[in-house]
Amino acid sequence: MKSAKDILRRYLKSNGLLYSRQREQVLDIFLKTEKHSTINDLYELVRKKNTKIGLATVYRSMKVICDAGLARETDFGDGARRYEHKYKHQHHHHLVCIKCGRIVEIASPRLEQIQRQLAKKHDFTVSRDTMKMFGICRACKRKSK
Amino acid sequence: MKSAKDILRRYLKSNGLLYSRQREQVLDIFLKTEKHSTINDLYELVRKKNTKIGLATVYRSMKVICDAGLARETDFGDGARRYEHKYKHQHHHHLVCIKCGRIVEIASPRLEQIQRQLAKKHDFTVSRDTMKMFGICRACKRKSK
DNA sequence: CGAACAATTGACCATAATTATCAATCTCAT
DNA sequence: ATGAGATTGATAATTATGGTCAATTGTTCG
Ligand SMILES: [Mn+2]
Ligand SMILES: [Mn+2]
Ligand SMILES: [Zn+2]
Ligand SMILES: [Zn+2]
Question: Where in chain B is the domain with CATH 1.10.10.10?
């Protein structure tokens, strides 16, 4: 199985783009995290390795990393774009606690199946999908009792 | 059945807020549209009735209209918050065409049922949920053949 | 009705995330 | 090693949205 770096390399080459030091550094950092990181999160982390890197470069790198199929943008409705893994990670959805911010990841084959049926019914070719439920998590319910 | 205005009136009163001319004007405009409008869309429309109204007032009015349960925020990933009806409208999800921007609304009891099961399984009390599928609509597929 | 008082408004400024610009630098096929 | 073209970092620009505050308005109560 190909490594994430190989995938990025291949994507870049086949699109006439270059494999720069900065892109590799951003990818390295991104691969290490398992959270839903903002650009700023990643910027702070990558700066520990490369103090000179610019914020815009992190934006641009995550853009190509997404385009290469390695990362996925998510949006939890706070005003900041977040990134999570897409390669070697199961497709999933999110429960978002509006009290504590906790994010629970859920996967459901039955849900996926219904999504496929709905798309087919409307003759829609789906390239990306997202489902989120916002509410109160178990822990927060306990606390408020 | 209560009118939307009655609901807003009641919500405002029970929260110590006032029923202002501007709030009524924004609600009137919002009720007339059946699209997914941005604040700016609504601002342009309401200005035809009240040229003096401020943009911030439209933001603030839509906030209370949402809080009153009459509108719902949606986000299609373009950089602008959108509003749609919540009162006397069935809960639904969206298919978003990334070619032409068309938005198809879908309702699915089976989907809702699975959502409920997933929430229950994780002991999550859901207050708001959203599901979107992005892709290519039927019309756009036809065109590109 | 007509204060009284709190809530709201409109104008404007502040903030924050993201994108555009561009000269200097880097990458990579040759 | 070289050169064409891509990328970078700094910075400015843009955009959506929220905050401030003096002037105005809505509601309650006498
Ligand atoms: Mn996730
Ligand atoms: Mn809708
Ligand atoms: Zn919680
Ligand atoms: Zn389309």
Answer: 4-85
Are the C-beta atoms of B95 and A121 separated by less than 8 Å?
no
State which fold the A93-144 domain adopts. Answer: Dna Ligase; domain 1 (3.30.1490)
Q: Give B56-87 pLDDT, tens digit per residue.
A: 999 999 999 999 999 999 999 899 999 999 99
Q: Does A17 touch chain B (CB under 8 A)?
A: no
Q: Identify which of A122, A136, A138 has the shortest CB distance to residue B104.
A: A122
Is the shortest CB-to-strand distance from A47 to strand D under 7 Å?
no
Distance (Å, whole) CA B103 – CA B96: 5
Q: Does domain A4-85 have CATH number 1.10.10.10?
A: yes
Q: Give the confidence band of B144 by pLDDT, cuts at 50, 70, 90.
A: confident
CA of B127 to C1' of D11 (A): 43
Mean pLDDT value across residues A15-41: 97
